[in-house]
Amino acid sequence: MTPQTDSRLTRGEHQKQLARRRRMIRKRRRSRVRRVRMLRSVQTTRFWIRTFTVLAILLCVAFWSRYAYVYDVPAYAQRGELVGVNAYITRKSWWFGPPVFDLSSYQTASMNPLERDKYSTLLHNLGRYQTVVKSPRFVWVHRH
Question: Which of 2, 97, 109, 123 has its CA 20 to 30 A from that of 19?
Answer without folding.
Answer: 2
